[in-house]
Write a structure and sequence with these properties.
The structure is a single chain. The chain is an alpha/beta fold. Helices cover 39% and strands 25% of the residues. The protein has helices at 10-22, 33-42, 59-68, 84-92, 105-116, 152-163, 171-179, 189-202; strands at residues 2-6, 26-30, 47-51, 75-79, 97-100, 126-129, 132-135, 140-143, 146-148, 169-170, 207-213, 217-224. It has a five-stranded parallel beta sheet, with helices on both faces. Strands 6-7-8-9 form a four-stranded antiparallel beta sheet, with helices on one face. α2 packs parallel to α3 (59-68). It is elongated. The termini are far apart.
C-alpha cells in the first residue's frame, strides 16, 4: 500500500515509517497539518494515518476538508486523545477508524488492512496512455501488449507520472512523493531512476512517453518522435 503518515512527533513518525516499510509498504511523511493536507489531496494514497493534534491544521480539519473535496481515501485517526467525544467527532468527520496511543504495531497493521479493504477509494484500477497500460490491482505494466518488468521504485514513479499524465511534475514533488519529505537521496538518484524507467518504457518505440523538462522536472505524455 501507499501510505501517508501525518504526525508531528518525528520519532514516532520515523518508527512507523520504518516498521511499515519493513512490511513492504510505501510511506510518505508529513510533520504538520497544512503540509499533510496538501500532500493528501495532491497525490494518490491507499491509506492516510492522521494524528489529531497537529500544528497548522488539526487532523479533524484535514479529514473534514478531504471529505468535502470528495477524497475517499481511507483515514485512520492516530492520537493520544481517547475521549468518546473525540472518537465520535473523528468518525463523524469522515475517519474510517480510530487508534489511541500507545498501541501495538500489529494492531495498527490489522486496522490498516481492514480499512484499506473498505471502499470506495478514488483510484482507477487501470491507467492507459497511448499503448502503455498500468494495472494498479495486479501491479503489472504492459506496452504494446508486452509486459514490462519494473522494480518497486520504478513502478511507483511510473504510476505517479501516469496519474498526472500531461502535467509537468517538478523534481522536488516527485522526490517527496516517492521517497518522502525527510529523504536524503543524492541529487542524481531521481535522474538515474528515470533513465532506467525511460529505457524500459520507451526503448524501441517510435512514440516516446517520458520527457525531461530541463531545469524543472519530468512529464509523461504522448509525443511523436521526430
Amino acid at each position: 500500500m501507499r501510505i501517508l503518515i501525518v504526525e508531528d512527533e518525528q520519532k514516532m513518525a520515523k518508527l512507523l515509517k520504518k516498521g511499515l516499510e519493513e512490511e513492504n509498504h510505501s510511506v510518505t511523511l508529513a510533520h504538520d497539518g497544512t503540509e499533510g493536507f496538501d500532500i493528501s489531496r495532491t497525490y494518490p494514497f491507499d491509506v492516510v494515518i492522521l494524528d489529531v493534534m497537529l500544528p497548522g491544521m488539526t487532523g479533524f480539519e484535514i479529514a473534514r476538508r478531504l471529505r468535502q473535496s470528495k477524497k475517499h481515501v481511507p483515514i485512520l485517526m492516530l492520537t493520544a486523545r481517547d475521549a468518546v467525544s473525540d472518537i465520535v467527532k473523528g468518525l463523524n468527520l469522515g475517519a474510517d477508524d480510530y487508534l489511541t496511543k500507545p498501541f501495538a504495531f500489529h494492531e495498527l497493521l490489522a486496522r490498516l488492512q481492514a480499512i484499506s479493504r473498505r471502499g470506495p477509494v478514488e483510484r482507477l484500477p487501470k491507467l492507459k496512455i497511448a499503448d502503455l497500460i498500468l494495472d494498479s490491482v495486479t501491479h503489472t505494466v504492459c506496452r504494446a501488449g508486452k509486459q514490462i518488468h519494473l522494480t518497486k521504485t520504478e513502478y511507483l514513479l511510473l504510476e505517479l507520472m501516469m496519474r498526472h499524465s500531461g502535467r509537468v511534475l517538478p523534481r522536488n514533488a516527485i522526490v517527496e512523493a516517492i521517497w518522502g519529505f525527510d529523504s536524503e537521496i543524492e541529487n542524481n538518484t531521481l535522474d538515474a531512476f528515470l533513465r532506467l524507467l525511460r529505457k524500459k518504457v520507451d526503448s524501441g518505440h517510435a512514440v516516446k512517453l517520458i520527457h525531461t523538462i530541463r531545469g524543472f522536472g519530468y512529464v509523461l505524455r504522448e509525443e511523436q518522435s521526430s
